[in-house]
Amino acid sequence: xxxxxxxxxxxxxxxxxxLEQLREAGxxxxxxxxxxxxxxxxxxxxxxxxxxxxxxVSGAIGRIRGATTRQVPLIVVSPAGDVEARIxxxxxxxxxxxxxxxxxEELQARVEALxxxxxxxxxxxxxxxxxxxxVTFFAPKGGVGTTTLAVNSAVLxxxxxxxxxxxxxxxxxxxxDLQFGQVATHLNLAPRYDIADLCxxxxxxxDPALAATYLTMHTSGVSILAGPSNPEADFxxxxxxxxxxxRILRPAFDHVLVDCGSRLDPRTLWMLEQADTHVxxxxxxxxxxxxxxxxxxxxxxxxxxxxTTHLVVNHIFPKELLKTRDVENLxxxxxxxxxxxxxxxxxxxxxxxxxxxxxxxxxxxxxxxxVLTVAIVGAEWRxxxxxxxxxxxxxxxxxxxxx
Length: 403
Hints:
Blueprint: E1 5-9, H1 13-19, E2 28-32, H2 35-44, E3 49-53, H3 54-57, H4 61-65, E4 74-78, H5 83-92, E5 96-99, H6 104-117, E6 133-138, H7 146-157, E7 171-175, H8 183-186, H9 195-199, H10 208-212, E8 216-217, E9 223-225, H11 239-249, E10 255-259, H12 266-274, E11 277-282, H13 286-302, E12 308-314, H14 324-331, E13 337-339, H15 343-352, H16 356-359, H17 364-377, E14 398-399
Parallel strand pairs: 1-2, 1-3, 3-4, 4-5, 6-10, 6-11, 7-9, 7-10, 11-12, 12-13
Antiparallel strand pairs: 8-9, 12-14
């Protein structure tokens, strides 16, 4: 059975325990006790279905519906034999109602049927694929657009203007630039909590529901684990804490994108070793290329990497001394994508906190980011008709490091 993430809301410990038996069928369950807790959980992380005890959500179904921009189906558990209550819950907006005297087989069948009916059922074998794939974005030289590419790729994967074939993915974006991370700025967010807060909460590092409250949900559907608001917090975050945070959050997402910034410290090295895909951002100048060459050599010698590596050339100035072919010759690898110079679009996107793939979805820069995102997930992109010709998707990348 597919590992859809389910949110369970039930004040009764006995009922919660019965509903949590859905884990035996391969579902990923998160449990809360009240409707208010459900609202908080939905605002922090994506779920494919909600199962709630009727007494807990009586009069609160509308509030739960409004807690997320996603259409999340709701099953209400009604008191056994109370037909009027079942009708009332359906009229209030529940997608299905099941009696509190349910058998586990009936519950599983109701959940599966509703997921299929709402288009959220996952392909067979999804439960065996493990947690979400990790994609790291890194550049040995700062100011080359690493955050911009991470943010725009994340919102595209979550179902941006140019949606991928099939349903939108569940995406977590982690800001691992622990001193001056700007993911929240790029998305016009003011997070209440950040990665330093999560790492300092020992209980949250072992409780998925509590850990999810440290995330901030963007309107695109991307869940954000923001960088520290105070640079001093950088010195308090350890590799062990980071490992626990990733372990507790990762199972709820299809993709975990990590903006690693431009500093190669032990936490960045650890994250690079966990990654399934690396995106290294290059600016076509001698200093940046030399830094990239040194970085690749250092990683090959010191780190145990298993990821596919993609190089991306980002043209941040209108005129550059080096051409893309020079980059290919120097690094002996072909970039998977080339982001054209578009100063006005990019600066406006950052200043307004609206990703360029939203504000200018048909621009050359947006199309190039689409090419990159296709390469990251290895899937075909469904593009809307648009005037002009954009670059054709290219696949590529080099293998780096040892298995």
